[in-house]
């Protein structure tokens, strides 16, 4: 005959380990206490302050791991949301910071921003064999500027070219190029990767403008 509170599985019986599951710090404390009792030298028991320090250190490590897991989960959710949002823009024209382009027969639209005025800005395209093609844009004021490059007009054969902008005032601004957003995916490093026609892969930070369809 069982006494009150001694029924199997009842409130008087604790699961293995001596603590209810998911007790957090309480479960950690119990686990550490049991391990200490089992392993300490009976003739030289651990000082209470040492035990408290160990418990505090374990609690801190556990809290940091929990925070890291939550941060990773939040980052993953943000990336997933970004993929869905940018996926709706597939087919749109975008301006991207780039230093190379695959030229065909179609004119290329680009842009750059100057911090101060210059007497001449130059676009330089370098072919795979090292041949440089310089296109003068003339004087430019401070601010944002755009340009168009017609491969046929400048005798540029189809292929991949490195591209850069320089100014007589010494500036070498970042080059922005227009291209169609082809697809959006998450890379192995967890970052969102955009595939741009004629430009290749780019990260979200490289996108400067959406130009529409």
UniProtKB/TrEMBL annotation:
Family annotation (Pfam families): FlgD, FlgD_ig
Domain FlgD/Vpr Ig-like: from-to ranges: 102-170
GO biological process, one term: bacterial-type flagellum organization
Gene3D superfamilies attached to this UniProt entry: 2.30.30.910, 2.60.40.4070
Region annotation Disordered: where it falls in the sequence: 1-25
Residue ranges, compositional bias (Gly residues): 1-12
InterPro entries on file: FlgD (IPR005648), FlgD/Vpr_Ig-like (IPR025965)
Alphabetical keyword list: Bacterial flagellum biogenesis, Cell projection, Cilium, Flagellum
Role description: Required for flagellar hook formation. May act as a scaffolding protein.
Family: Belongs to the FlgD family.
Protein's recorded name: Basal-body rod modification protein FlgD
Taxon lineage: Bacteria, Pseudomonadati, Pseudomonadota, Betaproteobacteria, Burkholderiales
């Amino acid at each position: 005959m069982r006494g009150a509170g001694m029924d199997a599985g009842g409130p008087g019986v604790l699961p293995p380990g001596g603590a209810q599951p998911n007790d957090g710090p309480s479960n950690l404390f119990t686990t550490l206490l049991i391990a200490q009792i089992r392993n300490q030298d009976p003739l030289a028991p651990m000082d209470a302050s040492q035990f408290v320090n160990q418990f505090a250190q374990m609690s801190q490590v556990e809290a940091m791991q929990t925070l890291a897991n939550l941060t990773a989960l939040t980052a993953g959710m943000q990336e997933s949301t970004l993929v869905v949002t940018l996926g709706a823009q597939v087919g749109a024209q975008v301006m991207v910071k780039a230093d190379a382009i695959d030229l065909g027969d179609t004119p290329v639209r680009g842009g750059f921003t100057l911090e101060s005025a210059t007497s001449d800005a130059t676009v330089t395209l370098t072919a795979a064999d090292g041949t440089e093609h310089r296109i003068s844009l003339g004087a430019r004021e401070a601010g944002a500027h755009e340009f168009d490059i017609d491969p046929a007009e400048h005798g540029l054969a189809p292929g991949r070219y490195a591209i850069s902008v320089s100014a007589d005032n010494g500036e070498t601004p970042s080059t922005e190029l227009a291209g169609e957003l082809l697809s959006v995916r998450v890379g192995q490093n967890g970052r969102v990767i955009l595939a741009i026609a004629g430009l290749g892969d780019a990260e979200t930070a490289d996108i400067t403008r959406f130009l529409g369809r």
